[in-house]
Amino acid sequence: MDQVHHRAMDALQPFVHLADSGSASSPRFVANIITNATSSPHTYVFAELLERPAVQALRAPDAPAELQGYLTLLEIFAWGTWQDYQQTPNLPALSDEQARKLRLLSLISLASTIKPLTYESLMTSLSLSAPSDLETLVTTAIYSSLITARLSPATTPPTVNVTSVAALRDVKPTSLPSIISTLMAWESRCGSVITGIEQEIAKIRLESARRRTSEHTRMVVIEKTLAKWNPESGEAITSGGGPAGRGVSSTRKSGWKKDISAALRGRDFFGGGSNKREFDDDAFFEENANEVDALASGMDIDEGAGARTGLGNAGARTAKRFLGKKS
């Protein structure tokens, strides 16, 4: 659609240059420029031509009355419709090219304002008597890239489904205040939306900072607790969990495994008090590292002539003990 607008602007430039030339001092010459510009098949925007001083001079009181209508006709081509032409008196007659051009321009405006766009409403607005004439006009607009549409003659009622229109209509000066008001209202709504988004972002950041602080505090407490109960550390802890010097304190100067082993060395595994040969953690006798309990039973073996002769005698002597016999 932007390419269509650029092509329309380029097509208007020759007529703008003619309006700025020295020959444009003649009202009749200016009227001919307007007629040719509105009849050209590629001109769809006319605001730049309408602003030329030579064209605006047709509005002067001393301009011929029969030529003043050309300025009004150019304004209708710029932002009016076919109905505006029909309702305005004392306008020049249109050629077939001008009539087709004004109907195409009116179709762009109607497609932007009327929903749904039925055959009946279009034929009434464009003064067309047959549906085939309307379909021919719509097809021309589609192939000229003025609108993107699809004809639906079999629906009830028959409609023209328009999905997009080209930005080829000029803005009427009297409509500028309403456009400015609409844009200002839109800007205000956008500002409110942005403010709400910024407030939500601030809340999210505040909540995230709070969670990070809470997580950091929790991790510090966990690390301190783990440090107090670390078996390999020499940190002093009290029975009440407080620092050393308050209440009954104890110092973990060695690991818990060493503490348990030292406590077990002072007792017999069978509750009979201390024994000079106890089975240690690695299944060796304390007195002699070469003496091994063949059954790995963890109990003492009676001393005797055959106690250290071999694994077989040790196993037999141990079995006798279990049976209540002693050699």
Topology:
Elements: H1 2-20, H2 27-39, H3 47-50, H4 53-56, H5 65-79, H6 82-87, H7 96-113, H8 119-126, H9 131-143, E1 147-152, E2 159-165, H10 176-228, E3 236-238, E4 249-251, H11 256-265, H12 311-323
Antiparallel strand pairs: 1-2, 3-4
Architecture overview:
- Keywords: Signalosome.
- InterPro entries: COPS7/eIF3m, PCI_dom.
- Belongs to the CSN7/EIF3M family. CSN7 subfamily.
- There is one protein chain.
- The chain has 327 residues and is mainly α.
- 54% of the residues lie in helices and 6% in strands.
- It has three domains: 2-170, no CATH class; 174-227; 254-327, no CATH class.
- The chain has helices at residues 2-20, 27-39, 47-50, 53-56, 65-79, 82-87, 96-113, 119-126, 131-143, 176-228, 256-265, 311-323; strands at residues 147-152, 159-165, 236-238, 249-251.
- The protein has a two-stranded antiparallel ribbon with strand order 1-2. Strands 3-4 form a two-stranded antiparallel ribbon.
- Strand 1 (147-152) and strand 2 form a beta hairpin.
- Helix 1 (2-20) packs antiparallel against helix 2 and helix 7 crosses helix 9 (131-143).
- The longest helix is centred in the middle third of the chain and has 53 residues, at 176-228.
Question: Structural class from helices and strands?
Answer: mainly alpha
**N- and C-termini, Cα separation:** 116 Å
Q: Provide the number of structural domains.
A: 3
Shape descriptor reads elongated
Largest sheet: 2 strands, antiparallel
Mean pLDDT: 78
What is the C-alpha radius of gyration, as a whole number of Å? 53 Å
Count of DSSP-assigned helices: 12
- Report helical residue fraction: 40-55%
String of helices and strands: HHHHHHHHHEEHEEHH
Order of the strands making up the biggest sheet? 1-2
Low-confidence stretches: 233-257, 266-312, 322-327
The fraction of residues in strands falls at 5-15%
Secondary structure tally: strands: 4
